[in-house]
Amino acid sequence: MIQCDKCEYFIRGPGGQIGFKCDPFKNIKEPECLVKWQLIKIDMMVRSYQATLEMYRRLAPLQEKMFRQMEREIDDVDEADRWKYGLHDDEENEEEEEDESENHSG
User: Fold this and answer.
1) Rounded Cα distance, 18 and 38, in Å
2) What is the pLDDT of residues 8-25, one digit of tens each?
3) Residue 100 has pLDDT above 70, yes or no
4) d(CA 95, CA 101)
5) Pairing between strand 10-12 and 18-20?
6) How does DSSP classify residue 12?
7) What is the pLDDT, as a whole number, of residue 63?
8) Which residues 6+ apart lie within 8 Å of 72 measured at CB?
9) Cα-based angle 102, 85, 96 (whole degrees, multiple of 5)
10) Which of the two ends of the chain, N or C, has the fewest CB atoms closer than 10 A to its terminal CB?
11) 3-state DSSP call for residue 74?
12) How many folded domains does the chain comprise?
């Protein structure tokens, strides 16, 4: 089995990072190369997923603050629009009915 660092498709960057120019659909030298290529791609996917999770962890407190602020604004709008639906009048009518029933029973 050929070692990757001896292969013509192997690239080492100036910072020591490793790269491959091999394409599993065109120029794989040995069957083991395909397995290595798959492992590299899986590792890239895992790193990407971990980076995404870390970003979500960092955004979570900000999202919570935004949700609370939005809930407050929605509650304020609902409170301001209560007169449109007659909810405020219903409460006043209930209070008046309670007052009347207390006056008649006393």
Assistant:
1) 15
2) 888 888 888 888 888 888
3) no
4) 10
5) antiparallel
6) E
7) 94
8) none
9) 10
10) C
11) helix
12) 1
Domain that holds residue 31: 4-105
The structure tokens listed for 78 are: 């609902």
Q: Which of 60, 64, 66, 20 is nearest to 43 (CA)?
A: 20
Rg for the chain, CA atoms, rounded:
34
**pTM (2 decimals)?**
0.53
Q: What is the pLDDT of residues 16-69, one digit of tens each?
A: 888 888 888 888 888 888 888 888 889 999 999 999 999 999 999 999 999 999
CB 43 within 8 A of CB 18: no
Using CA atoms, how far residue 67 sits from 11, 62, 70, in Å, is 47, 9, 5
- Kindly tell me the sign of the dihedral angle through the C-alpha atoms of 40, 41, 46, 52: positive
